[in-house]
User: Which sequence fits this backbone?
C-alpha cells in the first residue's frame, strides 16, 4: 500500500491521473480493452471490410471523440436518454449475443496479413515520418485537453480538468523559481566598513628640570 501511494503521488506530480485496480489481473485494464478492439480491427481488415485508414477514420471521427472526453460508460449512459444506463442496457444488451464479432478468435499472423496491414499503414502515413506523426499526435492531445479545460464553466472537464490543475501547478512553480532567481540576482548589500582603530597617542617627552647653578654664600 505504501509503494502504491508513492507511485500515485509521483504520477500525479507530473500531470497524470493514477487509477489503482481493485484486484490483481494479467496486463493493464487499458491494454485489455485495446486488445479487444485490436482483435476485431484485424479481422475487419483481413476480411476486406475496410482498410486501416478507413477503420481509423471511423474511430477518430465518431466514438473516439466521445470516448476521449467522457469514457465508455458515461457515453452509453447518455445514449440511454433520460432513463439512463438501465434503459441503454435493456435496449442494446441483447446485441451482445448477435454474431457480429470475432473477439474470441485471433487471425493468424502470417506474411500475407502482415504485408496487407503494413502496406496500408505506409500509404496512410502519406510520407510523414514517425517523429512527425508523434508531434502531430502530441500537439493534438494537448489541443484537446486545452479545449476541455475551458468546459464545465471554466472548471475543466475530464482530462481537461487534470490539464488545467497541472498547468496551474507549473505556473506556481515557475513563479517561485523566477522570484528566487530575481532575489539571487540582487546586488549584495555592502558590509559596513569597520571603524578605524584610534591612532595610538604620541609619547610626550618629559624633560627633567635643570638644576640651577649658583655660588654658595659664604
Assistant:
Amino acid at each position: 500500500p505504501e509503494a502504491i501511494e508513492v507511485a500515485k503521488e509521483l504520477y500525479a506530480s507530473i500531470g497524470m491521473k493514477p487509477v489503482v485496480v481493485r484486484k490483481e489481473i494479467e496486463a493493464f485494464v487499458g491494454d485489455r480493452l485495446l486488445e479487444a478492439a485490436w482483435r476485431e480491427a484485424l479481422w475487419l481488415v483481413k476480411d476486406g471490410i475496410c482498410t486501416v485508414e478507413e477503420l481509423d477514420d471511423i474511430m477518430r471521427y465518431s466514438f473516439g471523440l466521445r470516448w476521449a472526453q467522457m469514457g465508455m460508460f458515461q457515453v452509453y449512459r447518455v445514449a440511454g436518454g433520460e432513463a439512463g444506463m438501465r434503459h441503454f442496457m435493456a435496449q442494446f444488451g441483447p446485441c451482445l449475443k448477435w454474431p457480429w464479432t470475432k473477439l474470441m478468435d485471433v487471425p493468424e499472423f502470417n506474411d500475407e496479413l502482415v504485408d496487407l496491414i503494413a502496406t496500408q499503414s505506409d500509404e496512410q502515413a502519406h510520407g510523414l515520418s514517425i517523429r512527425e506523426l508523434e508531434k502531430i499526435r502530441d500537439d493534438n492531445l494537448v489541443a484537446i485537453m486545452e479545449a476541455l479545460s475551458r468546459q464545465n464553466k471554466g472548471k475543466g472537464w475530464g482530462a481537461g480538468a487534470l490539464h488545467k490543475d497541472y498547468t496551474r501547478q507549473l505556473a506556481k512553480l515557475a513563479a517561485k523559481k523566477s522570484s528566487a532567481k530575481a532575489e539571487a540576482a540582487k546586488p549584495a548589500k555592502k558590509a559596513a566598513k569597520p571603524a578605524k582603530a584610534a591612532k595610538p597617542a604620541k609619547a610626550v617627552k618629559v624633560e627633567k628640570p635643570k638644576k640651577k647653578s649658583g655660588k654658595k654664600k659664604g
In short: Residues 159-185 form the longest helix (27 residues). The chain has a mean pLDDT of 86. Residues 130-176 form one domain.
